[in-house]
Design a protein that fits this description.
Layout (H helix, E strand, L loop, with lengths): L8 H7 L13 H4 L1 H4 L9 H16 L6 H25 L5 H27 L5 H34 L6
Length: about 170
Amino acid sequence: DEESAGWGPLMVFLLGRGEWVSRRKHMHWTSRWGCVVKPYSMDRVYYSGIEFAASFAVSGLQSTDPADHVGCGHVKLFAGIVFAALLFLETKLWPHLRPRNGMFDVMQLGGQMVAMWMLAAAYYSGDEDASEFGMASIFLDFCLAVIVARSAINGVAWCVVAFTGRRRQR
């Protein structure tokens, strides 16, 4: 266990259980695709494909040009459903190598899901001054704060690894 090996809870939170390590003489496929797959645990690496597919689905939905408020509501409703599906998978699979990334994903996906459904409700109401627009903005601001916090903590973790060389093999 990590704590008996000199790792406190903060280091486990920052660095997770370790890095992907290969003993092969030739370049391992993770070296080529590292930025895509290394955030995920080895047995859940396929989750990166699920995230890319969801990103393309939401992008495709958002690129449509609905003719009226109801069409805009449908787009936001379905985007919220995609985020809800990702949130469900994230909580069931917990695919990240570092648990903190899963925690940040759950907060971000939850905020995006609620914001999309608030926007859908606002568009369905037909009122251009609906209060749901303001509430959706608050949830999207929360998502931005989560992304900034995640980036800052990832930067700290990178510095810890770069300057101390602490990488566990598991």
